[in-house]
Write a structure and sequence with these properties.
By secondary structure, this protein is of the alpha/beta class. The chain has eight helices and eleven strands. About 30% of the residues lie in helices and about 25% in strands. Strand 9 (about 180-190) and strand 10 form a beta hairpin. The N and C termini lie far apart (about 60 Å). The relative contact order is 0.14. Belongs to the SurE nucleotidase family. Keywords: Cytoplasm, Hydrolase, Metal-binding, Nucleotide-binding.
Length: about 260
């Protein structure tokens, strides 16, 4: 299954579709319009609209009036009767590295697949004025083939650097950066006497270890394995001791 967060008409989706069809049957279920920054939003309280769409004669797919996670959930549960072997999300217009992983609808679609027991790969291309999605698709399919068979719930995040600078220097398997950005808000007024705040800035903070943000900036394709489990397992046992006398604390307040 192929999806994205830029919308079913996005050139990045078409570019990777042309590569994926050489590997097997491809089902396209993508948002009807841009859902960039939608993260893992899911439609709960209203019906989810879906319509068939023909994309320039290249492929026919399903346009969903919802989020990327909606697309994956609807495809797996309702639209496709047979098991789905792999979910590919992308190619996104702009990198999804660092804390952008949490904001990204592209990565969220891949993570939704993991929730449903399906391996997935999120693919993104660093943003610039002229986006070479066809070139990025060739690099992404090479990474996908080199990954080999993925297991259920595997989530792999792939980012291609600026291609205007030439071919990538190679591939680096690195961790996700978590230090965030240098950001600030610009206050603005409007006609209704409100104050508007425009988020600005955007440079990544310094990282001490090799991570996806720095490797991508250096011109490498980054590959980062993610996981749907957000539990900090190392803290489970130490934290249990803090609550080992829980019964005593409860009895103290009994009348």
């Amino acid at each position: 299954m192929l999806t994205n967060d830029d919308g079913i008409f996005a050139p990045g989706l078409a570019a990777i579709y042309k590569q994926l069809i050489h590997l097997g049957e491809v089902l396209v279920v993508a948002p009807a319009d841009s859902q960039s920054g939608a993260s893992h939003a899911v439609t709960f309280f209203e019906p989810l609209a879906c319509a068939k769409a023909d994309i320039g004669g290249l492929f026919s797919g399903f346009a969903v009036y919802g989020s990327p996670a909606d697309c994956v959930k609807l495809a797996v549960i309702q639209l496709h009767k047979d098991p789905i072997d792999l979910v590919v999300a992308g190619i996104n217009n702009g990198a999804n590295v660092g804390i952008n992983v949490y904001y990204s609808g592209t990565v969220a679609a891949a993570m939704e697949a993991a929730f449903l027991g399906i391996p997935s790969v999120a693919m993104s291309l660093a943003a610039e004025k002229e986006m070479d999605f066809d070139g990025a698709a060739e690099h992404c399919i090479d990474v996908l083939e080199r990954l080999g068979p993925l297991k259920a719930r595997d989530v792999i995040n792939v980012n291609v650097p600026l291609l205007s600078r030439g071919d990538p220097k190679g591939i680096r398997v690195v961790a996700q950066a978590t230090s965030g950005f240098h950001e600030y808000y610009i206050p603005q007024g409007d006609d209704e006497a409100r104050t508007l705040f425009q988020l600005a800035g955007g440079g990544h903070r310094r990282e001490l270890l090799p991570v996806d943000t720095t490797a991508l900036a250096e011109g490498f394709i980054t590959v980062t394995p993610l996981r749907p489990d957000m539990t900090d397992h190392a803290k489970i046992e130490p934290m249990k001791s803090q609550f080992s006398n829980d019964a005593r604390h409860r009895s103290r307040g009994t009348l």
